[in-house]
Amino acid sequence: MSIDRAAPSAAADPRPGPLQPGHATPYRMTVTTRQSHTDAVALVDQCLGAWLKYEGHAEPPPAPPPDPQLDPLSEPAPHSSLDLAPGLPPGSPPGLSPDLLASASQLIGAPPGSSPGPAPAAVRHRLGERVILDRDAGPLPAGPPGAPPGRYARRRLRTPAAHGTHQLTVTVATEDGGASWIRLEAEQSTAAPGLRTPSGVPVPELVNSLLPLVDALDGTVEVRTQPRIIAAAEVEVLIDELCDPGRRLPIVVASVPADLDPRDWAADQLQPLLSKVAGLAVCYVLDPGARVAFNTALEFHAVYGGAVRTYLPEVDPASRRDGQRHLVLPRHRIEGEPRRAAALLAREPRRLAALAPLPEPLARVPVLRLRPTAPAARPDSGPDARLTAELSELVTELTDTQQHGADELQRVRHSLHRSHRRELHLRAENELQDTALRRVSAQLRALGSLLCPPGEVVPDPAGLLGPASDGPSTFTELLYRMGEFPLVSFTGDEKETVALDAHTVGGNWVRLTWEGLTALQEYATVAVHGAARGDFKQWCEHAPVGGSHFPPRKAVRNESRTVCSHTKMRRERMFAVPPSVDPSGRAFMGAHLRIGGGRTAPRLHYLDDCSGSGRIYVGYIGMHLTNTMTN
């Protein structure tokens, strides 16, 4: 088995992941370290050597000590060997002699007769059958104007896999006066096109051994392989990390069910779930006290009930719509479908790792160039010399193309990152403008209804009203857009409303609820002036043409006498209102709207206080409450 398999765990699912044609999705980790450049490289070599020894392969020879006066790779390292075949360009002539290959390989990266380029070449070590380690190091090429000098070191390990090859690349890059960056990439290639491979490369074992040794960081946040349990006193620090504009990695926050111990929950449920995001995300567990403080501070980004939420970079705590960007995995899916839940959790961190632009020191690292041992003889003339020159030109062109592709990929990543930030900015601006426009449109319609007698069409000579605004598609979005109804206040429990999204079929419940809220707003606009000519049900029966229409049969004035007199049922219908409406802070809301058909369909309970505070209070939007039919 290669180095790219996940670390064994008793709780992990032993079955292989799904197979698909083509290449598996690579694993890419980018972190900083508190260690110096030299110490970080030494720790990488130590972990690689330990794994190779554990797998029964030969350990690589020690890396040559850095020499400030000389290129540390100016001479071939001991035990290095020539392996040019994997690097030959497609279509190279067959039957080349070893001497000719060696002669041509001397010119890799430089035209015939020229000196080697500024990038040091790599030394190749054969550590067993098809197990190859390439090592190179050197100064960073010149960067943008004002960029400080620096250095890098790279290790590339290739190991055999079923029907292909695993490749692990670890790069350490440091600019003078800056932090050291570590980039770890794991890829899997197939021996022939069309072969089926795992959908994603597993987390390399090197990640689990390397992260604790190098004290890995994402900015100022520690990147661990195990989740950290957070107490209430640490919630503010966690929120600062979520909102840090310099954060690169997602933050996974888990809430513990109220009846379970946080440590047991983390060990039994979270460890298998987080097995695919080691090194790609920072993970926290909220204890009961921290959960309450966290959800109180982030009402639009809450996590509770044993759910796990992935917070992408650039969290906006004040935006309800921003909450829709951050994936929530509910408890029932984590416990019922652990493998699928782990795959869903890993999808966004892997996507971000692939699309995020490289930090400047890593972006300056040149593409890998191989250095073989010197040949015994080199032909100077004849057909072999011409073939050597042609082969050298092909290899040089291939290397330059690879470098150009790497530079272009970095530019594309920067462009995508800028576009994403611009999209978030425009979305926030559009959110504010859209809310204001919808609110004005609703007010104009309500005022038009006030000025027109029942049965007449609301005039709109200037076309200011336009068509009725499109309603939301989910109850989560509906709650976000409640601000479009200035005279309707929602005082209920949002969790009861959001839970309807799990039961909604075809969006009919959402549409009907939105129509009811729109009609309540138009009714309230007229009722506060005493011109409604009745209650809300009568308004629905005689709604003006051009206004919003809610089916009168679904508007109920009050609950039955049995429900109103039953202690438990009446208590269920006592909902929050401002103290100015009722000093107790609660009021009985028997008036309700039937949402959908059937006796158990959702209900919207409200209090009409237009003659008092001039508002309508919606205390409940959720599944049908207890009545004589549900006892």
Question: Main traits of this protein?
Answer:
631 residues; alpha+beta; 9-stranded mixed beta sheet; 5-stranded mixed beta sheet; 16 helices; disordered N terminus
Description of the molecule:
The protein is 34% helix and 19% strand. By secondary structure, the chain is of the alpha+beta class. It has a nine-stranded mixed sheet with strand order 10-9-2-7-6-5-4-3-16. Strand 6 (164-175) and strand 7 (180-190) form a beta hairpin. Helix 1 (37-54) packs antiparallel against helix 3, helix 2 crosses helix 10 (383-451) and helix 10 (383-451) packs parallel to helix 13. The protein is elongated, with a radius of gyration of 33 Å. Mean pLDDT is 76; it is low at 1-22, 67-118, 372-377 and 460-468.
Share in β-strands: 15-25%
Structural class: alpha+beta
Global Rg: 33 Å
**Biggest sheet character:** 9 strands, mixed
Report the helical percentage: 25-40%
Strand order in space, largest sheet: 10-9-2-7-6-5-4-3-16
What shape does the CA trace take? Answer: elongated
Distance from N terminus to C terminus (CA atoms, Å) equals 60 Å
Individual helix count: 16
Count every beta strand, where a strand is a DSSP E run of 2 or more residues: 23
What order do the helices and strands come in, and which of them pair?
Elements: E1 19-21, E2 27-33, H1 37-54, H2 98-105, E3 122-128, E4 131-139, E5 150-161, E6 164-175, E7 180-190, E8 196-198, H3 205-214, E9 216-218, E10 221-222, E11 228-230, H4 235-243, E12 251-255, H5 262-273, E13 282-286, H6 288-297, E14 308-311, E15 328-329, H7 331-336, H8 338-355, H9 360-363, E16 370-371, H10 383-451, H11 475-480, E17 488-490, H12 494-498, H13 508-527, H14 536-541, E18 555-556, H15 561-565, H16 567-572, E19 574-576, E20 586-588, E21 592-594, E22 603-609, E23 615-622
Helix pairs in contact: 1-3, 2-10, 10-13
